[in-house]
Amino acid sequence: MENLPCKGCRGLCCGPVPVTERELKIIKKKIRSMPHKQRLALEKQPRFYGTCIFYDLEKDRCGIYSARPEICRVFGYHKNLSCFRKPELATKDNWTAKEKHVGILSQDFTWKDFK
Ligand code: SF4
Ligand code: SF4
Description:
23% of the residues lie in helices and 11% in strands.
């Protein structure tokens, strides 16, 4: 699969995303497994208004990459989740969630919920 040109975007499309109960558990595990200093540094990073609370602006990538929600994994490749920088990659049918979402990451669930 061809990659999206994400380097340099600085989290442009990383805003509040819907999450499932299962995904919240996976993120919690990931956050708790981080060394304390690293976790604190990520939490305290200044971010643009509306940017996902887990976006790592210093490294210009997702701060919880291996634990990111499903919607973040499929973004850019489905017709209803296209990236404006490379819309031609959005060739798959509209994406629909397989599991029920329980809220929005960065809005309903913030750093305090993952400690
Ligand atoms: S998916 Fe698109 S908008 Fe989002 S970071 Fe990648 S290139 Fe940028
Ligand atoms: S979890 Fe990661 S990939 Fe998903 S919106 Fe947040 S920073 Fe972006």
